[in-house]
Amino acid sequence: MFVALVPSRALQHALGALARLLAERGGRAVDDDNIHMTLAFLGDVATTRIETLTSMLGALPRARFAVTLDRLGAFGGAGVAWIGPGLMPAQLHELHAVLAAALQDGGFRVEERPFHPHLTLVRKWRGALAGDAPDVLEWPVDGVSLMMSESTASGVRYRALARVDFT
Q: How many domains does the chain have?
């Protein structure tokens, strides 16, 4: 399981087109429906804890904000190419910090490495990638979701277990 920001279908489609373009240089494009920004990776979570996690989502800051997706990059060790903001909005930083504190207080594992907001576009990426995105995309963030990863015959799919809309 993980907590994520999920773009609208239209933005997922636009990001999917960019993913397929990048994948022409190598790797495997992420399916449009799987494109998201992970705020916290939780790993295996007992179903008895889902209600606790859903309550935590409801206690997060709920103001809408925008993220400008204008930078491309790659995590070589992880083999992913990504898009993200050149500058992290203060609201995104606050949302991540409040979530991390709530998870820690609730006894959930919290990653210690710094938060690097990004949306994975290509897996099995090899090589470097850094610079401006070919098109700047404005993302109006309007909610946060508790997600579950499911293995299917056609690959991994992400499914929302809960969502809290921002106002």
A: 1
Indicate the pLDDT class of residue 154, thresholds 50, 70 and 90: confident
The whole-angstrom separation of Cα 51 and Cα 69 is 32
Q: Is 118 a catalytic residue?
A: yes
- Active-site residue identified among 36, 93, 96, 116: 36
Q: What is the span of the domain harbouring residue 161?
A: 2-165
Handedness of CA 127, 131, 133, 137 (dihedral sign): positive
pLDDT, tens digit (0-9, with 9 covering 90-100), for 90-138 = 999 999 999 999 999 999 988 888 999 999 999 999 988 999 999 999 9
Could you confirm whether 116 is annotated as catalytic? no
